[in-house]
Amino acid sequence: MKINDIESTAYPLPSDILAEKAAGSFTAARELIRRRLDNSDTSDCMKKRLLHELSVLDMTEADYCRDRDEVISEIRRKVTDFSEKQFDELLLGGLVDYCYIDGRKRFLSTACDSLFNTYPQLFPALGDGWRTRARVEDSIVNTASAGDGFGAHICLRHTVELRPRADAASEVCHVHVPVPWKSAPNISSLKIRPSDASARFSPESAAMHTVYFEAPAKGGLKFSVEYEYDYKDTCVDMYNGVEPLKFISVPEAELAEYLADEPPHMHISPFIKAVAAEIIGDETAPLMKARAIYDYLTTKCHYRFTRNYSAIDNIPEWFLVNGHGDCGTMALAFITLCRSVGIPAGWNSGLFAGPDFVGNHDWAWVYIEGYGCRPVDVSFGGSANRVGNEPKRRFYFGNIDPFRAIFNSDVSCEFEPPKRFMRRDIVDSQDGEVEFDSRGAFADEYSVTIEDMGIKSF
Are 313 and 11 in contact (CB under 8 A)? Predict the structure, then answer.
């Protein structure tokens, strides 16, 4: 079940509000929104859109919190001779995201990390380590051949700690911690251990899996879930023909929902159709069409940290228009482009969970007759392309490494029990969500830690 009113995020904004937002006049846009919300003539569906837009303005302002001097100063901590002119060239080259907020050009808080990680070749002073550093998955990915089995044992502890403001200290807090589920792809021997025996598990059929806690709010209160499982798969080569493995065909009726047009973030718009037609050209075979889409996204588009998804009206369009984005925007672009040309595709997200790094990650899957449903990681494929590792780029079309915690099988879906207030992430669920009886929690009222309790490949 989709989050209530998620469709309203695709509704158009009134022209005066849109003009103020486009000009970066957030204060004026907020005032116009409030006046329309107070106007009895404003339709209920428009009020839903306007309430969402107030949250978008807040999130955008929180994301774009750095000014020019701050960004340049941070770059100079690592590249001491970096100049103002070089920064202007980065802007003109479209390599740095920014927006105007009440007359000031503002940059993402992650601007420098994004530059250093995505375009290290532009900063020779960083050294070769930024371009060639080994990753834990390389030991498996760089040596895997068709038919090879691989896997990992994953054990993590996910903790949410409260520090509520005074107005919420006498209320009950409601916490959702994301977890894997028993029938997730390639998962076995799953054990989930919540810190409180009264915690509630979402049903196995849920699209976003969580453990739910509630308790009187107080600073220092911790909610944690420890989970462990084995991830196992067999390498498939989708560039050189169907492998001699036993795949199960999926009935067309079960695949229909994975061809659907689902606004706002899997919307098969005229622009999506046009881009897809340009990418696939004269190809007619589903495998070749899906591969052409993957090749385009991993070689023509670029990875970059981006804004909160809630502040993007149509994620795949936004990604394709700008030519850059993070793992989730890449996955949604792949899914929507595939669906637009009749290829079933869907979503997976959770964590990359290696022994040297644990962090949020999103990817996709695609159904091709003869192969079944196979994972596709556009982000990791694009990263491999940047460093010239073609075998690794090809691996991630049909395979993923085993260092994954899979929490979600769809986007913008409701929790069980549902949240009462707007989620901090209305698209995905990876960190955890907190709210009180009277309102949603602010970002500074809780912290999330994910601990490696034992991760080992086999």
Answer: no
Distance CA 275, CA 293 (A): 10
State the pTM of this model: 0.91
**Percent share of the chain, pLDDT over 70:** 96
pLDDT digits 0-9 by tens, 134-178: 578 888 998 889 889 999 999 999 999 999 999 998 999 999 999
Q: What residues have CB less than 8 Å from 342, skipping those under 6 apart?
A: 259, 286
Please give the single-letter amino acid code of residue 146. Answer: A
Give the number of other Cβ atoms within 10 Å of residue 253's Cβ: 7
Cα–Cα distance for residue pair 442/156, rounded to 1 Å: 25
Name the band, by pLDDT with cuts 50, 70 and 90, for residue 129: low
